[in-house]
Amino acid sequence: MTKQFHDNVLGGDILDQLYNEARTYNGWLDKEVSEEQIRHIYDLMKMAPTSANMQPGRFVWVTSEEGKAKLAECASEGNADKIKAAPVTVIIGYDIDFHEELPWLFPHTDAKSWFEGDEEGRKEGAFRNSALQGAYLILAARAVGLDCGPMSGYDADAVNDAFFGDDPKVKSNFICSLGYGDPSTIFERSPRPEFGKFNRMA
Amino acid sequence: MTKQFHDNVLGGDILDQLYNEARTYNGWLDKEVSEEQIRHIYDLMKMAPTSANMQPGRFVWVTSEEGKAKLAECASEGNADKIKAAPVTVIIGYDIDFHEELPWLFPHTDAKSWFEGDEEGRKEGAFRNSALQGAYLILAARAVGLDCGPMSGYDADAVNDAFFGDDPKVKSNFICSLGYGDPSTIFERSPRPEFGKFNRMA
């Protein structure tokens, strides 16, 4: 029986941890992130929905000095320093040929055939759904007591060559540093819109 | 002083509500979702990060019978029935000209100039970041005790004409029904990948 949580509004501290007090960090305390923590984040993220369970995200968790140096070379100067200082930076990539995996990921129908011969449609679906997965990852990291620093200021072609060169159907979407945020490295909170600015009822 | 939550791993019930036991619903109990709940979801979602605080998402919360009929006409047959039955379906749109708002959304530098004259780059940034916002929305809805049914099976051009026709720089990304999920309408959980399948350390 599926557990349901109807009208169970999570407490203020939990919403603070996930949304209201969580911040984008630009620097990190000198404290490691373990592979166990990384696996926990992935095991949460993978449960959240993607279209036809396509799970197009392909993730490279950069933790070694060599990996950081390689990734930093592809980034803008400011982001390169952040990558080198972070315990982990994950590359959120996507596989344009995700449909090859659908026979086992979505076994109750022939979903693979929906995408065959439609590379543009696959690219759009993989990009959208890997971005969703990246957001699930950010909130999962926060849910296990880590902080995030997502970035898109880098040379995507260089990252693709350096990390996905053996599989040209995989491209990077964005990258995200993870760790224990140094509170001295956050900027003042940017303004947030009132509901009426970007929302309407219909 | 920023609140931090280092190593505070949220409890199992909370992770169940957000990730592990939450499911995609195809049908809904006969129970309304209030505008107050919708505003709460938005007020959480908007706190989560977008690149340069661009906040490109534009949201139409379809709750009226007329709105549902109009949206259902743009959807595949199966999704049309789901839209008509759901208390709310939100259209997650994005504004390709989001950069016009950056002077107040990202006031400490001239971020607008980074995007001027680069419509392709704006389109990519708006699509990526509105997808992130859609994922933040899904988890925020779950955090306030609602269920979700995200969908991309619809005619995007028709939705753009019907709901964003007065502003051709706004396009739909995906749509998501919200409400109190009817547990009889979920499918068997699709398989999830082991860590090693789509992840590697570097």
Describe the structure.
- The first copy, chain A, is α+β, with helices and mostly antiparallel strands and 202 residues long.
- The first copy, chain A, has a single domain (25-184), classed as NADH Oxidase, CATH 3.40.109.
- The first copy, chain A, has nine helices and five strands.
- Chain A has helices at 12-20, 35-45, 65-72, 77-85, 102-105, 112-115, 119-143, 156-164, 195-198; strands at 57-62, 88-95, 147-151, 170-179, 199-201.
- Chain A starts with 11 loop residues before the first helix and ends with a strand.
- The model of chain A has no long low-confidence stretch (mean pLDDT 97).
Explain briefly what this protein structure is:
Two copies of one chain form a homodimer. With 202 residues, the first copy, chain A, is of the alpha+beta class.
